[in-house]
Design brief:
Shape: flat
Number of helices: 1
Number of strands: 16
Strand order of the largest sheet: 1-6-2-3-4-5
Order of helices and strands: EEEEEEEEEHEEEEEEE
Strand content: over 45%
Radius of gyration: 19 Å
Largest sheet: 6 strands, antiparallel
Helix content: under 10%
Length: about 190
Amino acid sequence: MKVNAITIRAGNILDYNDKLWVVLKSDINQPGKGAAVIQVEMRDIASGNKTNVRFRTQEVVERVRVDEVEYQFLFADGDDFTFMNNNTYEQIIISKEMIGDAAVYLQDGMMVMVKIHEGKPLGVELPTQVTMKIVEADPVVKGQTASSSYKPAMLENGVRILVPPHIEAGTKIVVKTADNSYVERAKD
């Protein structure tokens, strides 16, 4: 399906130079002079090679139609992750490289959307938010105001994150998987 480049988002599959590419990042740049462009970082699905391409925002690109099927995360074995379709009980193995940085948020039993094109998995879309436990949090510095300051903390999966001063070790919080940002304290 042909779309304007400005609609490209992370996770989209593009047909570019007769190859299938998965979009890892997309940033719109508006220089002081001239037309806006979109900078796209993408990975070749077949070879795993990465590239950066700049498109004009009105340029037309070919987005590949993919099926999204819900799978349940079962377990990790090194850099390979095993998922199961709860309807057919079919299991598939997807590499950590294909999942990307969000792989650290996979939890036992988590439901994810697997993008499939012609029977082959192309990528995994995790929930936008997950609940994680804080295992380590820096103490509050006196004089900081709660509205403007955040302190470093460590999640149970080893990811460092900035949280408000009132969050302590042992607290469960909601985290955005896309950018590792604090959303809110989790409701018990």
